[in-house]
Design goal:
The complex is a heterodimer of chains A (115) and B (113). Chain A is an all-beta fold and 115 residues long. Chain A is built from no helices and ten strands. In chain A, the strands form two sheets. In chain A, strands 2, 4, 5, 8, 9 and 10 form a six-stranded mixed beta sheet that branches. Chain A has a four-stranded antiparallel beta sheet with strand order 1-3-7-6, with no helix packed on it. In chain A, a hairpin with a 6-residue loop joins strand 4 and strand 5. Chain B is mainly beta. The chains are: A mainly beta (115), B mainly beta (113). At the A-B interface, strand 4, strand 5 and strand 9 of A face strand 4, strand 5 and strand 10 of B.
Chain lengths: 115, 113
């Protein structure tokens, strides 16, 4: 079966441009997470989509960051007016049931480089 | 505020010996704990978990121990193999917190042949 996929795998952009990162979770998974990992750092929580409930956006670092999850499936993370400090690997994960404790399945990540 | 802490950035172990990775947490509401393994250029993969109603969970060479009073958990790998060399993340979630998972900073394990 297909796992979590992310696109693009690599993205190089210029400072000030907008970028969109895509995540295709495992079919039927009701929870979807976005994290980022800066060089040498751990996993920083960004946003959590929990079923049809309002997403937990408490980890978004600034209002330049936003995310959507359409139809309970695909999610897009948008970063507006990118800055060099946004350079990181952006990881998406999904889990089966947002109402229970269960493991997350991660995609391979999108490496974003802001020049 | 780091709710999940992995204070050792790296650990080096000889092949065949035991690897012990440690994790501390501060939020007493956490009731589910997980360990993930991450190889370079890949996403983390789930390794083993433990509920707060248990103090030990074993799966093959991997055992997780939970000490609730100390807010401490550890992952034991025995015997360690070179293929175990990776970054290990400790994670925790709370049923009352919407099950949002908080990750530690990770510990890089080197298993020397």
């Amino acid at each position: 079966g297909a796992g979590v996929s992310q696109s693009p795998s690599n993205k190089v952009t210029e400072k000030g441009k907008d970028v969109e990162l895509r995540c295709d979770p495992i079919s039927g998974h009701t929870a979807l997470y976005w994290y980022r990992q800066s060089l040498g750092q751990g996993l920083e929580f960004l946003i959590y989509f929990q079923g049809n409930s309002a997403p937990d956006k408490s980890g978004l670092p600034s209002d330049r960051f936003s995310a959507e999850r359409t139809g309970g499936s695909v999610s897009t993370l948008t970063i507006q007016r990118t800055q060099q400090e946004d350079s990181a690997v952006y990881l998406c994960a999904s889990s089966l049931d947002w109402r229970k404790n269960n493991e997350q399945f991660f995609g391979p990540g999108t490496r974003l480089t802001v020049l | 505020d780091q709710q999940v802490k992995q204070n050792s950035p790296s650990l080096s172990v000889q092949e065949g010996r035991i690897s012990i990775l440690n994790c501390d947490y501060t939020n007493s509401m956490f009731d589910y704990f997980l360990w993930y393994k991450k190889y370079p250029a890949e996403g983390p993969t789930f390794l083993i978990s433990i509920s707060s109603i248990k103090d030990k969970n074993e799966d093959g060479r991997f055992t997780v121990f939970l000490n609730k009073s100390a807010k401490h958990l550890s992952l034991h790998i025995v015997p360690s193999q070179p293929g175990d060399s990776a970054v290990y993340f400790c994670a925790a979630s709370a049923s009352t917190g919407g099950f949002k998972t908080i990750f530690g900073a990770g510990t890089r394990l080197f298993v020397k042949a």
